[in-house]
Sequence to fold (709 residues):
Amino acid sequence: MTDTVLISLKKVSKIHNEGRPNEVQAVVGIDLDIARGKVTVLRGASGSGKTTLLTVIGCLARPSSGRVALDGRDISGMPERFLTRIRQETFGFVFQGFNLLRGMSALDNIMLPAYPQAPPHRWLRRRALDLLSMLRLEHRADTPVEMLSGGEAQRTAIARALVNDPPILIADEPTANLDTALTREFLGIAETLKAQGKTLILTSHDPRVFEAGMVDHVVTLRDGRVEERR
Amino acid sequence: MNHFFARHLYLVDFTVASLGRRRGRNLGLFAVYVLLVFVLASVSLMTHGLRREAQAILESSPEIVVQRMIAGRNDPVPTGAVAAITGIRGVRAVQGRLWGYYYDAGMRANYTLMVPPDRPVESGAVVIGGGIARLRQLDTGDIVHFMAPDGRIVRFTVSGTLDSASELVSADLVLMNEGDFRAFFGFPADRFTDVVASVRNPREVGTVASKIALALPEARVVTRADMLRTYEALFDWRGGMVAVVLSGAVLAFVILAWDKAAGLSADERREIGVLKAIGWETSDVIAVKFWEGALVSLLAFLAGYVLAYGHVFYFSGALFEPALKGWAILYPRFRLVPEINGQQVATIFFFTVVPYTLATIFPIWRAATIDPDTVMR
Amino acid sequence: MNKHLRLSTTSLSVLAVALAAALATLVDAALRFDSEALARRNRAALAETLQLSDLSLFTEARYTRHPALADLHSAFQDHPAALDHFPSAAWMPPTRWHEKQP
Fold:
């Protein structure tokens, strides 16, 4: 059933600071398939390697060894330019802490990932506003991001991740700073996106996330290895 | 619209939004930048304009001036020198000049009194330059009193003023006839202040000058070429002093710009990481930095230059007036001929725009090595 | 019309205006050149008839009025504290002895 496998990892290892005294084996020999259109949660305590694995899956970093295939195409040996193109077209990122650019409005932040492709400005603006209204944030469009509440900032970050309409959405610890209501709201958004056919990959050690009904797969990591999958 | 322009318009959007975030700081830097270009360009345009004026005047000044030296000091020339010089081969015309300086103690101003070689002035009358007319509020028909060296108060009637457009050469002139001049200063009847000579063949000025020096051993012979050299040296060293003073300002600015532009703060590094993570290429990040440098420095250069142009050619370099005027009371009103020296403008451009843009882009080569996954750590 | 002006539109317009102003100075210079150059020719003509050799810019002291005819070899010729117009004077100023006099 390869057509349901979107991303496939074979014996992927990632070593930080390779060859230096502070060398860390963050991820060791992981085999993993990510299913298309499903919600996958990478679960584990901090230091378990789940964020590192997410960077490898999201083409933010190349594995130290092993292979990563996207849609059956090996991307682990590609030069940075191609990885950038793939990130741009394929992945939307919601970072832990959101990493919105301070001093700029929510709308500007959302439009940023599309700048290098330079779509018609009016179209892009419309698209960003549509995303904001889908996330019930249209009234905050011109607000500088540092003035947004935690929930608003997260929805802005989600809108930014969606602006290029990527098939895959990656979120690192999306509920780390959210209360129960906001967590529920996030899960609601995630469910909507799943219904739209997006593949979601999340990291979390929050039971409210990995026990949620819409989650299809949970991969538990410990010390850089897969401990359990369901 | 093609993709290249569309993409760069977006990058400019980002650049300007990014600059707007530290508005006070960036505007301050921009103001300093504009001021620096303004001062440099003003000095450059002004000295160039004045130099051209001096050249235009020197080109029509006497070919040879003969002074007499006694113990290394200037001394009036005996009238007999005129005949002696006239006899030298190659000399076309010789004329003794009478001119000198007069200190107006009431106004604390120096005037140049002279006997005009070209026009008759009635006895008891003076023709005055525009600067004096303005300073003493004199007009044709008014009476002016000068105090002679022996203490007499001498009364003159202003019979005319010199064209105000010529103030740059004539602001402090007082023209009177020979009798009045000699009587006023008690100037010996058998002496001239100096003697001017013209030659038949301009290429023989040097030869004729050495012949004069040979015939009159006590004479100092100044040729037009000497005067030109003196003026070149004068403007060069004054300009050089200004350059030395300004180079401190330029260096300070370079340090400021370098500090502002070159230092990538932790925030900026993080931001570049974010941009790369969300799909920006390294070249996009570099283009943003290029736009930052180019927009700021081009705009500052253009604004500074336009202000300098207005300052020099519409306001006669009013801000430099105190420096040029020095302790003088008389200062001519003048309008310089607007000649823009491309080389000077290019020099200012090179010394202001290029370093800033480079200082902005340079550190980005280091930024290019920032991995996109830094944002996840 | 899009009521939201893009920053790039605004900033590049400002740049274009500045560029136009800079080019306008060239046009202005060309327009004024003839009349100003005529005025300069008139100044030069006056200088020729009066046998002048210097600009009347520096009237602060007798010896600064005519740099072209100045006595090149005697600095401080008229006043011990006066700056002569040689570079050396800029590096080492004359002794200001006169200020100590009562």
Remarks:
- Confidence is low (pLDDT under 50) at residues 73-78, 97-102 of chain C.
